[in-house]
């Protein structure tokens, strides 16, 4: 433990600096800047090395947080990176994007602001790249086993990297023209610049992972063909069916799924020509639904130069402080202030959307009513309707599950009651040799879960192929013990 009295001496929690709002909304560069070494050292000293580090349990990856806090405090950033990479393939993604459930379960957080764990992770990862410390890790031996990973989001990438390093020949199939899943075409550059993704892919390519883009499995090549060609197949296709809102006026021009808007914006920021791009310039934008997707639409709309940005949520406004029914060390639902929320826009809660209204086929407004709870159901309260001006409506209502993509017909693989790919305690589906990881199996979730599942799924695949495995398995998809792997 670095400084036994550190948490008493440094009581203030200081997170990474952010670029000023008026400056950052003029471009697509990242909002967060690097932290100064002195501040980082002081913040690291707040970690109490509390003996029973609940942060390990809060993090799906089981990150060894007190260990790397101690190393940061001592300025041993290279070793900190080694400990960080021991449990996380892509700490630069989670350091920038994770909502940090670890911080919710930090023991210091019981009566003081939690340790700035996420900032520590981000800085260790960036320093490692600055120091050319992130090198390809080549397998010690090659097996004669082959694996196809379908989908190149964080789950597919983590699975592929682990299995490549275990010596298997791994090909990642991606239907998009570029690798990365939601890291590429969902999450905007102001949250994570695409160069951060590309430099990690460079490492993966150098290690031997192969990428096949523009191949939609189930259409361009069947699941059955893949099963015959490879010794194991991993479904990491994400949860991509957007939840719709089939109310009057849904067909009007100007009402779009959030992902249509974000994908086009990401392509345009990457320098692609996007004909008839959905654009918010000068428009009154209304976003239905909160969460990460909603926040990304807010930030993107402001950078497009929207006239106004309003978010409508059907639920109650969450409390600012941790509510009693979600005590420490749980991750509470509290009023979220992401960087995009700092940039402006209104947020209205308990708003039920009744219909989209329009003129000449284009949306001009939304009729909303207050939400009332009847028998536990949320319904629009009669007599409270009002119409809000809207030229662009973005539906950010979540995702209902993975696309079927012929998986059931071609490979006989079953889906569960929630519409996700069904798997057992070891990530295997009912089709022998076919596994599922990430949002495709657990439903819409987080990057940290996608990486954790990717790592654990890789261990399960390795054991299936070789009879035993040395790969770590941080999480089980069900309550069944993964320790048997
Ligand atoms: C807009 C948005 C913002 C988000 N922001 C955050 C955030 O800030 N922090 C956070 O922790 N989480 C965030 N999330 C959630 C997070 O991105 C996901 O949980 C995570 O990406 C899931 O990873 P995955 O690998 O399972 O799937 P995905 O990232 O969805 O990747 C699946 C990939 O599979 C490909 N694919 C699908 N079907 C096929 C097929 N038949 N053949 C070939 N390829 C196929 C898709 O094209 C895609 O590239 C966000 C989600 C969205 C939508």
Description:
A five-stranded parallel β-sheet has the order 3-2-1-4-16, with helices on both faces. Strands 6-14-7-8-9 form a five-stranded parallel β-sheet. Strands 10, 11, 12 and 13 form a four-stranded antiparallel β-sheet that branches. With 485 residues, the protein is an alpha/beta fold. The radius of gyration is 23 Å and the shape is globular. The chain has three domains: 6-130, Fumarate Reductase Iron-sulfur Protein, Chain B, domain 2; 146-240 and 400-484, FAD/NAD(P)-binding domain, CATH 3.50.50; 245-397, FAD/NAD(P)-binding domain (3-Layer(bba) Sandwich), CATH 3.50.50. The relative contact order is 0.13. It contains 19 helices and 16 strands. A hairpin with a 2-residue loop joins strand 11 and strand 12. Flavin-adenine dinucleotide binds at residues 97-98, 150-156, 173-176, 181-182, 186-187, 191, 216-218, 236-238, 240, 262, 292-293, 296, 403, 405, 438-440, 445-448, 450. Keywords: Amino-acid biosynthesis, Glutamate biosynthesis, Oxidoreductase. This is Dihydropyrimidine dehydrogenase subunit A. Pathway: Amino-acid biosynthesis. Residues 37-69 form the 4Fe-4S ferredoxin-type domain.
